[in-house]
What does this fold into?
Amino acid sequence: MNQRVLVVEDNPLNCELLRDWLEVEGYKVLIAENLSAAMAAVESEQPNAVLLDIQLGSEDGLALMPWMHQRPSVRQIPVIAVTAHAMLTERERILDSGCKTIISKPIDFKLLRSQLRLWINGEQTLQENSLRKKG
Ligand code: MN
It folds into this structure.
């Protein structure tokens, strides 16, 4: 079964760019254009990862984080922030919120690929490694 990535992004062009790239990478793509759509999709679809635009129109994308943390069924889903606002103070606010990492716009797709693999498959890979060592 394909891994599912939820793209939370208000800009339609960015949505399409990410959708096309993620589909080529083999992911099933879900799109949410605002916070309430993101919350509904996180809860109903339980994606394997979330790509979260921080400046979500007039909304603060980071408001998704405390909402997810309050819900045991979704709080373990890794969230990767995607933002043009990569200033140091903004980085601290993003990482303090619980996002795993930050990808700056314009997106470095090689970095996005490695971060998605790390956060979606990381635990699995660690388990396999420890099993291999034991064997
Ligand atoms: Mn935006």
